[in-house]
Each structure stands twice: as structure tokens, then as C-alpha cells.
């Protein structure tokens, strides 16, 4: 019998697990994939929004502002990459300026500390690369950028260190109400690997949160996957833009952005297309054409020759266009964390903290006196002074063997990614933890060596190493067997 089971190991589920571990109890996170951060949390804009866009009075507005305020301190406590770079929303014509004024007014109502509408001259001072079309912008200096993988993994590792259990490759098949021997309400969760009992359920299943919710409640919800295409540019373009640059919002949200990443790349996206397939992350040439056309309105000379990869992410859009949070009225001790689309990444820690407190209060839990609120990430040898780096390599030669040439990632970092709590079990798991394979060649050079390291560390045949778990084996046979 668990005190609480969290369904879903995305950023919101892992943030909730981290804050829940500050209370005494037995907790478990169930994830259908082979690792944390395998859904929406791995493919998004990586933006920490200031809070001017969400409708005043909405849950999105409330948790956007709270989450924005939490990230600077959390990034220090949990050692993940975050940067307060500010954002600009561009007016592409004089007719757009009233839209900026409405955004500013809404942001002030939401509690954003500082917002300013700047003219063309000031805009060029703030963002010299901006093109000839934009005439003004809304400047929001409290916006930021983050590593979404790093944040999610940090929340998960800290939760694990504080006693939270994680079950991967564990898809939830059913949730049914039950009672304990004392007549207390509880839940039975059916999975492909058997059933468990829990006093409370936290539904953080992302795109599948409607399916989980609808198992227990007569008040049905519906999640529509909203696909967005992205282009990622090489790190040599990292200085092209300083701020996260949006355009005035349209029907499907904030439109195409151009932004630096915390790792020095430039990202362009997303498009917005509602689809039916909850796994539909295929990219389209039409989507890329749309990205380039819209981004070209903001910048005259985008370095598109430096695109190194493209990808698509799915947002969990609920028809009410607001977060669905808290205990479900007709399902005692079943707590929803559904419809978490933009600004979901920004809001995640605030949602997790408040939801954990609500669950703890419902269950009558006491604070965990042994809770450790800090975590140290993987050592980056590139951050060391030459003398300290030389000393490290003498002590641990694996840090002197570069495996990923594009990103200059050593064997030592890859070993740490595999050996640490909730360590990597696949190529993508390694990539998300230390960026091996995220560079210009997109793992064309380093993947065979990383596969060998994974196989050796996990005591498995190299042919069984996967890209991202499941049936995503890289090696599908031997040439000699097909001759």
C-alpha cells in the first residue's frame, strides 16, 4: 500500500514527486516509458515565461507567475541549467501595438513585476539581430530559458534520493476505487506488471491524462495533442539572439519564437497543429516552411544553413484551455494534474509544490525530517580550470577520453550519466543527461562507442541497446546473417 502514486514522469510529475518527498510516506512514480522526461517534457521550447500571456484569473496565470519566481533558486538547489535572458514580443506593424498594450495590461494584472513597450530604436539596442519589419516590442526581463531535460531529471533524482520509488515501462491499464480494511478510501492501479494499492493517485499523465481521469470520473475531459515542429541550429549560432523573441499571439498561442538555449544553440518554433495521434511526433516539410516564413518576419538573415536537427513535440491541449488541478469532486483522493500545456514547464514547480501539500494534507502526512532539498548534477569537466582538469584526468583517466567530439563529452560524463540515481539506460537517456549526440553530427560519430559503454555498464548485449527503450534497437541484425 503506497500513500500516493504519481502517474507520469514528465516535468510536472517529477516536480510533484520532489515536493511530495518532503513529507513522510511511501510514494511511487509510474511511467509507461523507459525513462523520465520521455514525452512533452523532452520536446518543447524550453522557455520560462514571464506571465503576461495567460488569461487573468486562470490557473495558467497563477502558476506561471509562481513557477517563474521559483526557477532561479531551484536551479541552484538542484544544479540544472537556467538563464534569465528576458523576452521580447514583436509588433510587426503599427496595428499590432495595441495588442502589446493589452498583453502588458494583462501581465500587470497577473502580477508580472516589470513590463515595458519599447520602440524601434530601443528594440535594436536590446536585440541587434532583429529584422527591418518589427516596429516595437513588449520587453519582459523576468522571462528565462532552462534545460527541460536537466530540470526534469533533477526533480526526479532528488525525489529518488528522498525515498520515492520509480517504476519504468509500467503503463497504467486501469484505476478503480477500493477501501482499506479500516474503511478508508483507496485506489487499485492495474498495470501490465500487476496491481498496486494506494491511498491517493496523482494523475500527471500528460497527453494521456484524460484517459486516466475518465477512468474514475463522470465529468469527462478531452486532451487534444497539439503538434509543434522545431528547428535546432548549431551552437556556433548561439550569439545570434540574446532574448527569447516572440511575435504577437495568434489563434493557436504565442506563434513562432526564436530563442537561444542554455547550451548555446538557437531554437526556432513551434508550429501548432491539432492532431488525433497521441504519439504523432512526425515532422513535416510544410511545418518547416511555416517556421521559416514566420521567423523570417522577425529576422532578415536567420542562419538556417546551420540547422542540425528538427523535431516535433506534442502539447496536451484541453478544450477549456486551462490547467485542471486538484482533487476530483467525484473521486476522493484522486488528484488531477491535467491539461498541462504552455506555460506548463514554467508552472511545473509551483504546481508540484502546491499539489504535494494538498495531498499531504488530505492524507494527514507529517513533514519528512530527513528531507534533503539539494542535488548535485553531473560534473562538466569543461567548467574546470586547466590545472583542476589535469588533476581530475590523472585521478580518473576516463575524463580525458572524449567520446562525443561535437559537444566534447568525455567517457567519464557518460559513465556518470549511467551510474547515477535513475541513470540512463538508452542512447537518448545519455543524450538528455550529458548532451552526447546532440551536436552537429547528431551522434553519427559517437553512438557506437556510447552503445558499447551502455552494454558494458548495464551488462547486456550491445545488440539489445536501444535508442529510447522499447523496440527501438539500433542493431537489427548482422550483415553476415543476410548474405
Features:
483 residues, alpha+beta, FAD/NAD(P)-binding domain, D-Amino Acid Oxidase, Chain A, domain 2, 3 domains, 8-stranded mixed β-sheet, 5-stranded antiparallel β-sheet, globular
**Major pleated sheet:** 8 strands, mixed
List the domain count as a whole number. Answer: 3
Distance between the termini: 55 Å
Kindly report the average pLDDT value. 96
The best one-word shape is globular
User: Rg from C-alpha positions?
Assistant: 23 Å
**What portion of residues is helical?**
25-40%
What does this entry look like structurally?
30% of the residues lie in helices and 24% in strands. It is α+β, with helices and mostly antiparallel strands. The chain folds into three domains: 2-40 and 149-223 and 321-363, FAD/NAD(P)-binding domain; 82-143 and 224-317, 2-Layer Sandwich (D-Amino Acid Oxidase, Chain A, domain 2), CATH 3.30.9.10; 381-481. The strands form five sheets. Strands 1, 2, 9, 10, 11, 12, 19 and 20 form an eight-stranded mixed beta sheet that branches. Strands 13, 15, 16, 17 and 18 form a five-stranded antiparallel beta sheet that branches. A hairpin with a 5-residue loop joins strand 10 and strand 11 (185-191). The chain has twelve helices and 22 strands. 49% of the residues are buried. The longest helix is centred in the N-terminal third of the chain and has 20 residues, at 59-78.
